[in-house]
Amino acid sequence: MDICREFLPISQLRPFAECIWYSPAVDSTRFEIVPDGSVDVCFVLSERAPRTLLFGTTTRTSTYELESGVPYFGVRFRPGSAPLFVKDNISDLTDNARAVPDFHGLSAEELLEASNMDERRNRLESTLLRALPHSYDRRSTVLSMAIALIEFRKGNVRLRELAAECGLSDRQVERLFLSEVGIAPKLYMRIRRFRSVLSHLQDPPDDEPLSIADIAAFFGYTDQSHLARDFREFNHQLAVTA
C-alpha cells in the first residue's frame, strides 16, 4: 500500500534531496521498500517512543514493519548526496536501518511538538540548509556526472564506459560508489535499470503496450529471462505476459 506523500524541497536543496516525505498515522503496519539507491533520514513521530532512524539504500525489495497509528516523516537524499549530510559510513548503512539521537540537532521529539506539517517541513529544511557544505570537492562533481549518465541511460551503461566518461579508472569508480552511494556501481546500474522497467510497467505509455520480451530488449536486457532474473534477485514480482 502506498501511504507516503512526497513534497519537493525548497530550490536550494533540490540538487541533493529528492523529496521531503510524510506518512500519516494508519492502522496498516507493512510498508514496501523497493531498491532505488537512496538514503533516507526518518523521524518516527511516536508519542510513546519518538526516534530518529537512518535508512541506507537497499539491494532487495523488503517490507518494513511500521508502528501502528504513528506518523513518519523524513527526507530522501538523491543517490550520492547523503554523505554531504550524514556522518555515518554510507556503505555500513546499506540494507540496514540505524537509530541515532538526532539529525544535526533536530530530534523526533522536536518535530512531534510542531503544530502542523508546514512547520515540520520548515524545521527540517532549515536543518538541511545549515548542514549543507558551502563547497564540494571534485569527487562530488565526478559522482554527479556518473549518476546523471546512468540515469540518462536508464542503467544501461558499462562500467568501463562510465569510468572513461568520468576520467577515472574502473577501480576508482568502484571506490567512489561504495563510499558515496553505499553500493558498487554495477549494482547501482542494475537497480536503476530495474527501476526504469518498474516505472514503465506501473505507468505504461498511452500507445500500444509492449510485451515483457519487448520491454526487456528496449531496456537493454539480453532476453526476457534476464529481465525476470533481475526482478527475482531484487525480490520483486514480475507479472510476465506474452
Explained architecture:
The protein has 242 residues and is an alpha+beta fold. The chain has two domains: 5-131, no CATH class; 138-233, Arc Repressor Mutant, subunit A, CATH 1.10.10.60. It has nine helices and eight strands. A six-stranded antiparallel beta sheet has the order 1-2-7-4-5-8. The chain has a two-stranded antiparallel ribbon with strand order 3-6. A hairpin with a 6-residue loop joins strand 4 (39-44) and strand 5. Helix 4 (138-152) crosses helix 5 (159-166). It is globular and about 55 Å long. The two termini are 27 Å apart. The model has no long low-confidence stretch (mean pLDDT 91).
Q: Brief description of this entry?
A:
With 242 residues, the protein is an alpha+beta fold.
Main traits of this protein?
242 residues, alpha+beta, Arc Repressor Mutant, subunit A, 2 domains, six-stranded antiparallel β-sheet, two-stranded antiparallel sheet, 8 strands, 39% helix, 16% strand, globular
Topology readout:
Layout: E1 5-7, E2 17-23, E3 30-33, E4 39-44, E5 51-55, E6 62-65, E7 72-77, H1 90-93, E8 97-100, H2 108-113, H3 117-131, H4 138-152, H5 159-166, H6 170-180, H7 185-202, H8 212-218, H9 224-233
Antiparallel strand pairs: 1-2, 2-7, 3-6, 4-5, 4-7, 5-8
Overall mean pLDDT stands at 91
List how many beta strands DSSP finds.
8
The amount of beta strand, in percent, is: 15-25%
- Distance from N terminus to C terminus (CA atoms, Å) equals 27 Å
Runs in which pLDDT lies below 50 for 5 or more consecutive residues are none
Count of alpha/pi helices: 9
> How would a textbook summarize the main sheet?
6 strands, antiparallel
The structural class is alpha+beta
Q: What is the C-alpha radius of gyration, as a whole number of Å?
A: 19 Å
Number of structural units classed as domains: 2
Helicity level, as a percent range? 25-40%
Spatial strand order of the main sheet: 1-2-7-4-5-8
Coarse morphology: globular
Q: Sketch the topology as an H/E string, one letter per element.
A: EEEEEEEHEHHHHHHHH
